[in-house]
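Writing this down once: the sequence line spells out the residues, with the fold written below as integer tokens. I am pasting one below:
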Amino acid sequence: MSASPGISIGKAYLVDKEGVDVVEKYLIKEKQVKNETNRFKAAVKKSKDELDAIIDDTPEELKQHTSILETQKVLLKDKLLFGKTLEIIKHEQVNAEWALKKAVSNIKLMFRNLPDSYLKERVEDIGHASDLIIRNLTGAKQVNIGEIYKRVILVAHNLSPAETSQIQLDKIKAFITDRGSISSHTAIVARTLEIPAVLGLADATHIIQNDDVIIVDGMLGIVVIHPEDQTLIEYTERKIRYDEYKAAVIRTGHIPAKTTDGIHLRIMGNIELNEEVASVIKYGGDGIGLLRTEFQYLSRIDFPKEDELFENYKHVIEVMAPRPVTIRTLDINGDKAISSAPSDPEANPALGLRGIRYCLTKPDVFITQLRAILRVAAFGNVRVMFPMISTLEEISKAKKILNKTTETLTKEGIKFNRDIEVGIMIEVPSAVIMADLMAKEVDFFSIGTNDLIQYSMAIDRENQKVAHLGQPLEPAVIRMIKHVADVAKSSNIKLYMCGEMASYPIHIPILLGLGMDELSMNPQSIPAVKAMVRSLSAENSKQIMGDVLKQTSAEGIFNLLKEAYGDILPDKDFTG
């Protein structure tokens, strides 16, 4: 899959992870248990020391990403990882390497049913931590990407945060990995450094050899091995065109997205980590339309404290001020992500205890986050947004807790902002149907098209057999969005969108025609979307909605838009 756009042509460099994947099992005697646990603890300490050294030596352009390495250090002593490994050594009388591998396997089983690819990716962080320990247990060769001396394309089974933190921009041209997703740390680093990346290829390390000439197409998510001369010529020309296109859109990214008839549409960025704030600013974002907050809760020993959350949010708010930042409250599926609070497994987590449902069952956790959000709102333009709302009762309960939290902060004399805007995500069909009543309770709606499409079309987003049903231009999806837009307008509340649908220029005429106030997307999509808005008439976009609503298929809507706006759409090769 495409994880970071761009085109790179060069020679492959395979990252060798000798001694990590294959671990032998052998039994030990009871009198050897203490020595084995001490050997494990020593390997953990050595791993921590290595992470400290990597943090100190991280190149300046990647310093912002060292927070993930601090998380890795915490994971080394995680109860599910460290504590469980010691238990297995003691009770099963096996070697430390095998005990650690078994502990990691148990964790992966616990997390395997998570519906969100972002949450699944956090399990990889635990795997990276265990790999580091195993290398120190076995004495296997350490991977040192920082020692690469020539310009290459990295090919690896997976890249850990410790490894990506050693990258030197003048040496690494692109990434290719067997594992990983668009929300993985490797993908985030690639986008930060603007290095093309294609992840999740499954068997790239078995097919590609060292020094093979390869092409990485970060737009289409493909890799060409041993390209023919004509293919090399075509991709060389395409790379030149892409570089010119990228330079042009970045130059115009800070120009406001105002239509030809004077309507201004705010174009915002979606981020997961503080490190991504710089990209929002670089690409001309008018603010942050979705600040995901899950990362601070995942793969850790306990729940984060209020001050930790506050400081994390404050960094984002102060950098973005006076631009708005919309903080989405915790959206994890159950507390299985917190190792100190194990939960019962759910048969179908996507339809289970996630989003606001989870927060309402954990009021202490919810209040801690709300206190941090209210406090940080005193330092900038902050909104709070509740995810996975499906009933009016959920809004009422969430607002009641929010109001009680403001009362408590007032009594304590703590500085905060009580005039914070409150909104909800519209991402399930029941919220669409009840939108008219829900609008009376909030300041804004934000449509999360990723989940809305999944739940309304009854599809598994990761199942390729039904992927064709997950199109944003499905008539049913368009009609639902129109209903929400009509309700927002008649109720005089703001209407935003923070799903992937907003990041494609070809969708903009529809979203503009429906009267969106704000669109939020991955930062790199911002310039192209702003350019598209500047090419359109809001009035014309409203008029074409009549023809859009007459279409009976996603293909019909796509063809209609292509015919009407094909001459002003940016190169599809570069924008999807």
Remarks:
- The two ends are 13 Å apart (CA to CA).
